[in-house]
Amino acid sequence: MLSPLPALSCKLSIGIRMNADIMRQASLTLKGRGDPTDIAQDIVGFRALANRQDPYPILGPAYRSLGLEWVGEVRNASTHPPMAFLFVAPIAFLSWNWASALWAWLMITLVILSFRCYGISWKAAIGLTPIALLWPPVATSLGQLTIIWLFALSAGYYFERTKQFWSGIFIGLGAITKFFPGVLIISFLLKRKWIALLGFVSTFILSIILLLLLEPSSIYRYFEASQSTSSIAMILRLDNASLLINSYRFGGWVGVTMVLFLFLSIIWTNRDYFYAPLLYSSPRSWVLLSFFSVALLPISWVFSLAPLLPIVIILITRKKLSTLIIGVCCIVIPFIFPSYGTAIPSAVVVLLVGVGLLFDGLPFKLFTAVSLQDFRGSA
Q1: Mean pLDDT, residues 166-176
Q2: Which residues have CB under 8 Å from 378's CB, separation 6+?
Q3: Signed CA dihedral, 129, 130, 136, 139: sign only
Q4: Are 92 and 100 in contact (CB under 8 A)?
Q5: Alpha-carbon torsion (239, 240, 246, 250), positive or negative
Q6: Tell me: the pLDDT tens digits for 179-214?
Q7: Using only C-alpha atoms, what is the Rg of the chain?
Q8: Any idea what DSSP says for residue 161?
Q9: Which contiguous run of DSSP H or E holds residue 327?
Q10: Could you tell me the end-to-end alpha-carbon distance of the chain, in angstroms, rounded to an integer?
């Protein structure tokens, strides 16, 4: 058995090599020559919908029908909601090389638009995107739905004050990928801005209508597949990076209680941002709810961290030493630890983002220090 220091060095070496391979795969994906990604399950699902077949087959044989060979036999059905399959409609019947490349370039475009929606200039947004792609959670998202989630929340924020119906629509678009982005609608419910709720609900109604027109049994099949042992197996996988699942795995109910206490502490220290007497919900509440949309996931992987990128940037730029250190750690950890095969690095990033939001909401000088000298002086 390796002693702690050599074991850590080994982990770091593996992580750096693995993440270098992630960069290489991202480059190949943009050229249509990358390894299969999870977007394949959405293509399988939409093709089945269009042909009035079962959208939740066992994925291993279904992937082979696309000409894809996955590393290891895939014996589970898709865990994505059937509404998510609709996103891939424009590319679903292209060859895999073309479909994966076009999807990857679309994701890059959405990253640029996400930066723009948060108020960054076009020139800066275009310049920041290649830098963002160096972060493993974003690089691995080129073949996923998580950048749609990132963009939907940023567009929802963009329209929050001026066109609340459209803000609700974009929150709905994010929610039909994994449901949990729907917590952002709470921002409007607290202010009783029902027009946003109307937009949110309209997105779901329209997507359900489209599903019923394509394949009426698809919604039933989703719930049937979700209740199968395959979904439970996905949750119990050792590389599932869900914060709640890992808190139970390593700490039992005590660990879950501690994480829930962290969540409640974040809400309590930031309660004024939720109930402030403003006409519209504050940007701060939007950031907090965006965090919870990721932190509450029961199934999570490294690419699930991509929607947290704006929050990490905010922590780094808050001009507080405590949040700066936490934000930098959130950027660095996915670089130096393995992105796949272990859940701990990604779960730790989610935990650190939560701790950063908690520290940012506390008024104590220890957490508001802007320099190391101030930090020492507060001790």
Answers
A1: 95
A2: 364, 365, 366, 369
A3: positive
A4: no
A5: negative
A6: 899 999 988 888 888 999 999 999 999 999 999 999
A7: 21
A8: T
A9: helix 321-336
A10: 40
Q: Which two tokens stand for residue 107?
A: 């994701």
The count of residues in the chain is 379
Q: Phi, psi (5° rounding) for residue 74?
A: -95, 115
CB 332 within 8 A of CB 339: no
- 195-213: b (≥16 Cβ within 10 Å) or e: ebbebbeebeeebeebbee
Tokens of residue 249, six digits: 């795995």
Rounded to two decimals, what is the model's pTM? 0.88
Tell me which amino acid residue 346 is.
Answer: S
The DSSP code sequence of 197-264 is: HHHHHHHHHHHHHHHHHH-TTHHHHHHHHHTSHHHHHHHH-TT---HHHHHHHHHHHHHHHHHHHHHH
Give the 3-state DSSP-derived string for 149-200, with helices as H, strands as E and coil as C.
HHHHHHHHHHCCCCCHHHHHHHHHHHHHHHCHHHHHHHHHHCCCCHHHHHHH
Q: What are the phi and psi torsion angles at 185 (to 5°)?
A: -65, -20
The label of the residue with tokens 């419910």 reads: 189
Cβ pair 73, 178 in contact under 8 A: no
